[in-house]
Design goal:
mainly alpha; two-stranded antiparallel ribbon; 8 helices; 39% helix; 7% strand
Length: 200
């Protein structure tokens, strides 16, 4: 037998190169996971059938608890609450709006102008370009004529016209009623500056 060359001896001492092999998931793990899944499904079905999810099982709140109050304890309409429920998401708590998206109410020439103009804006909304503080906003404001009554519109406008640094007169519900009647046939929003300029 020929003698192994000396240079091959270190190679013979090396272990084979490692390699990956297929190792399937153990059956016990598959059975355990399937068992937990079936138990969870049956638990949900059983409890929904025999233990209905009544409101009293939760935090004891009902739908009425989430309604935003629009009247104070004295029975007067609360303009601040109406603003929180309907206007704050766009015009923000500070009345500063969102630059380039929603116009500010603070210092707005529309808010501090004639009551007639701002009443019409709230009643019928706006669609199209509106200039506020020299900046042009091209969005949409929803109509509130079917959502808020005359007293509520008067209250929220009075709140806006006396908040955020604004110092304009309050709005009377009777004036809102008059403006509503005068434009009751209108079925679309005002076209921004083009239609509202004369009402500013």
């Amino acid at each position: 037998m020929p003698e192994t060359p000396e240079e091959h001896v270190p190679q013979k001492r090396e272990m084979p190169e490692p390699f990956e092999s297929y190792r399937p998931m153990p059956w016990i793990v598959i059975i355990l996971v399937a068992g937990i899944f079936l138990w969870a499904v049956s638990y949900i079905i059983y409890n929904r059938q025999f233990l209905p999810l009544a409101p009293e099982l939760g935090d004891h709140r009902i739908a009425a608890d989430f309604a935003v109050a629009t009247t104070s304890t004295t029975g007067a309409v609360d303009g601040a609450q109406i603003y929180t429920a309907n206007c704050l998401a766009c015009h923000q708590a500070s009345g500063a709006g969102l630059p380039g998206v929603f116009p500010p109410l603070a210092g707005s020439e529309w808010v501090q102008g004639t009551p007639k103009g701002v009443i019409q804006i709230v009643l019928h909304g706006i669609s199209g370009k509106l200039t506020v503080h020299g900046s042009v906003y091209n969005g949409q404001m929803p109509t509130f004529k079917d959502k808020l009554n005359d007293a509520q519109i008067a209250a929220v406008l009075s709140h806006i016209r006396s908040s955020f640094g604004n110092k304009a007169d309050k709005v009377d519900a009777a004036l809102v009623k008059t403006e509503r009647e005068a434009t009751k046939s209108r079925d679309k929003p005002w076209n921004g500056d083009a239609e509202l300029a004369s009402l500013k």
